[in-house]
Amino acid sequence: MSARRALITGITGQDGSHLADLLLDKGYEVHGMVRRSSTEKFERIEHLRDRITLHQGDLLDQRSLVDTLRAARPDEIYNLAAMSFVAVSWIQPTLTAEFTGVGVTRLLEAMREVCPQARFYQASSSEMFGKVRQVPQNEATPFYPRSPYGVAKAYGHFITVNYRESYDLHATSGILFNHEGTRRALEFVTRKITWHAAALKLGMAKELRLGNLDAERDWGYAPDYVEAMWRMLQQDHAEDYVIATGKAHSVRDCVEIAFDHAGLELDRHVVIDDSFKRPAEVDHLIGDYSKARETLGWEPTTSFEEMIRLMVDADYKQLKA
Ligand code: NAP
Ligand code: F7E
What we know:
With 321 residues, this protein is of the alpha/beta class. The chain folds into two domains: 5-179 and 221-243, NAD(P)-binding Rossmann-like Domain (Rossmann fold, 3-Layer(aba) Sandwich), CATH 3.40.50.720; 183-217 and 247-320, UDP-galactose 4-epimerase, domain 1. Helices cover 40% and strands 16% of the residues. It has ten helices and 13 strands. Strand 4 (76-79), helix 3 (93-114) and strand 5 form a beta-alpha-beta unit. The chain is globular, with a radius of gyration of 19 Å. The N and C termini lie far apart (45 Å). It binds NADP nicotinamide-adenine-dinucleotide phosphate and ligand F7E. Ligand F7E binds next to helix 5.
């Protein structure tokens, strides 16, 4: 029997690279869509370049999406590509809407035309809950997004649901809470903290400038979360799922765990910088993943404390080298 074929948009990102690792381990033929850039940014997939097939495409360009699907002929499509940094979504609100919102419709339209029997995963986000209407948040919690990113993700979520109901597509929306790890980009708060803990320890940085230390998130471990994406597409019926740990921590907790591990004191090194505060904040997120546990048999494997410590260790090793 020939290998199952998967297409990952956003394969150069944190989740795309972990998902590619997972699907290759499971015996899939893995295809990735990448956008053209004047310099290649393939660090996260360098270790598997000769085991995957890359296609040039952009969520803004319908032709490239149709051609990518024709070439890849996927059984499963994971739409992970997006402008994913919340803070930048206020700086580029309409571009965020195009990439993160309307881009989903473009890909669904291409799928309808080329491979309507394929299974589709949309990377939805806990940012859609924003100013939360219910604690903890589950699949039935109403959305109240607080950023142009959250608004665009809510559009992407509902268009996925709508195409499932309108055209009988196997289209799933995974509502994932924050997830991190050693491949997280440096601009996100956990990696910014772990990188600075390592750099301060090595004498390579003098301070850590942060915005709101009181914001609370339900932070999980990225390799666990890509396993949940795959499990969602193995179900006979497409539905939506919340993926979370059920535990919330503040940004301050994150600094304390990282600094404690590195033998540093928060008060000596952290500087509050208002330029990192957002026009509208999401104060507290905590997810209820009961449906995923019961239907997918999914559980998180790595605690927040373990994850932050392993991120500090990885940053320390990398900076020292
Ligand atoms: P990430 O590291 O920022 O990766 C985003 C990917 O999207 C990159 O490969 C990027 O390519 C690609 N991309 C951006 N714009 C594109 C465009 N116009 N056309 C084609 N590709 C484009 O994000 P991540 O953390 O892996 O997250 C994956 C997805 O899950 C995103 O949709 C994100 O919004 C969503 N999500 C993430 C979290 C989280 O905590 N990580 C939680 C919930 C939902 P380049 O390398 O060329 O920039
Ligand atoms: O911020 C606060 C900030 O940028 C977390 C994305 O993957 O998860 C991510 O979005 C919190 C916020 O992630 C700094 O105000 C304080 O309250 O790490 P973050 P995010 O905005 O939660 C969701 C689920 C996604 O879908 C997104 O794609 O930390 N914070 N000081 C800071 N944040 C940053 N980045 N930098 C600071 O200096």
